[in-house]
Specification:
The chain is of the alpha+beta class. Helix content is about 35%, strand content about 25%. The protein binds ligand DP6.
Length: about 325
């Protein structure tokens, strides 16, 4: 019996993965680029019993730390990923898995990137195998969550690298202390999954236009990051976020992730900029808004966002160093 525990972070895409050529394994139409977060993390403990013959046990930690079985919609993709890892390692046996998020589950934030990154890293260790981050990222991608491929690395990450399907770090977290204040405006689960969004994206009449200019935008974002130039980064990041939602809204059938509160936060971010505060906004496939800023702007940004009645909760995060094994087990 072997047990391993890993905490892996969520990430926020500055250039979005939206549209997959196929899903098993995930191959996107275009590379994405993200910032790995520090505070929003999933901690996962995996135990592998090579003599086990029953079903895998998939548990979730409640707020008080007690472990409870997960519902089928959570359990099924986890077990499918464990099956892949078992086959990859050529082992038979059963897993016991427990998982816990640092961010409130009622925050309505996608946790599949952190969840599948943590599961992949902990399960490969519990299987007694040793994988480097590139291999771990490739295995995480096989979960079906492309963004999990990026959460295996810290700092600023691109996936795929231009020459293959693996993810790679373009700069470590210490390169630039960017903050991410996450304005949570709606805590309901999204009506249309990212996976369905990836499937529908090519039906937008604007999808090919997006692909035509995306490489140039990604290179410009990468250069602005490497130069630590927030004034150059901010408009590129906002244009990219708006474009993801234009593709979603114009795909067939259309997908509307924004809520009126999303627009209220975007308006507040424009107001901050008009007042000379460096800030820019980005949204993944949902209504919540990630407001990025340099450290000295963070207090003003937080004050302005917390004053909005539309903001249910504000999570204070920022760029982080990536997964760690230095955490206590959940069982
Ligand atoms: C909009 O297929 O990785 O966040 O199922 O939420 O993990 P999850 O999504 P995934 O697609 C991510 C879509 C995105 C953009 C991005 O993170 O690149």
């Amino acid at each position: 019996m072997r047990k391993a525990t890993v905490a892996a972070p969520a990430n926020i895409a500055l250039i979005k993965y939206w549209g997959a050529k196929h899903f098993d394994p995930v191959v996107p139409y275009a590379p994405s680029l993200s910032m790995t977060l520090r505070a929003c993390r999933t901690r996962t403990t995996v135990q592998f019993d090579s003599g086990g013959t029953g079903d895998d046990e998939i548990l979730r930690a409640q707020d008080d730390g007690t472990l409870v079985p997960t519902e089928e919609s959570f359990r099924a993709p986890v077990v499918r990923h464990l099956d892949r890892l078992r086959a990859w390692a050529d082992r038979s046996g059963t897993f016991r898995v427990a998982t816990r998020n640092t961010f409130p589950s009622r925050a309505g934030l996608a946790s599949s990137a952190s969840g599948f990154a943590a599961l992949t890293l902990a399960a490969t260790r519990a299987l007694g195998t040793s994988v480097d981050p590139t291999q771990a990222s490739d295995l995480a991608r096989r979960s079906g969550s492309g963004s999990a491929a990026r959460s295996v690395f810290g700092g600023f990450v691109v996936w795929p690298r231009t020459d293959d399907v693996c993810a790679a770090q373009i700069a470590p977290a210490e390169h630039w202390d960017l903050r991410d204040l996450i304005a949570v405006v709606d805590t309901n689960p999204k009506e249309v999954s990212s996976r369905e969004g990836h499937r529908r994206a090519p039906t937008s009449p604007f999808f090919d236009t997006r692909l035509d200019h995306l490489d140039a935008r990604r290179e410009a974002v990468q250069e602005a990051l490497l130069d630590r130039d927030f004034d150059r980064l901010a408009p590129l990041v906002e244009r990219e976020a708006t474009e993801l939602h234009c593709i979603a809204m114009s795909s067939r059938p259309p997908i509307h992730y924004w809520r009126p509160a999303t627009l209220a936060v975007l308006e507040a971010v424009r107001g901050l900029r008009a007042d000379g505060v460096a800030a820019c906004a980005t949204m993944d496939a949902g209504p919540n808004v990630h407001v990025l800023c340099p450290p000295d702007a963070a207090p003003s940004v937080a004050d302005r966002l917390e004053a909005l009645s539309d903001v249910e909760m504000l999570l204070r995060d920022g760029v982080g160093p990536g997964p760690t094994n230095d955490v206590s087990p959940l069982f």
